[in-house]
Please model this.
Amino acid sequence: MSPHDSSQENRLEGLSSSFFQRDVLKVAPDLLGSILEVKNNSLTLAARIVEVEAYRGPEDQAAHSSGARRTPRNQVMWGPAGRLYVYFVYGMHWCTNVVCAGDGQPQAVLLRGAVPIQGEKEIRRRRRRDLDLEVLLRGPACLSKGLGIDGGDNGAVLGRGRFRLRAGILAPEEVVKQSPRIGVDYAGEDAQLPWRYYIAGSPGVSGPARLRR
Model:
């Protein structure tokens, strides 16, 4: 299933488990344009995903599961697809990922950037009131903070509880581009793999200007 596939049935429906039970390099670009909905008490926040990165498990030196590492931190990556993998970085930020493939195949998509489409007031309260709406969720830490995602959501099943991913569509003028992932210089040759996918020119895309065009 692709965001470009006009034959896809009912794009307003939540993505099925089979969508996530595929290789991360197929899931990641297909997530562009999809809508992440998060229930916060009586409010529902929603954002359109515009930037992601793929992490391909044991073979990928940039992945938390590189070399088949299995730790309490990354345990969720090793389980069923269609769950959130939420981890803490730099002692201050949460990052939100979607687990792909299946049991024993620790692959995940990092959600790097999104554009708010519902719940602006609450998202601004969690982020900064003076920022333009379209940049409130630019970058993985800002995305998690703005949507109210933290470690308590690690392992949450998409489509149950407070999280839902709805299929999306790319407008005819939107172009998907690829680049090396951001901030993975430690990964040796794998740092150059073009596994970052983004909607070119979207204000919700993170990174330096040359990586947003």
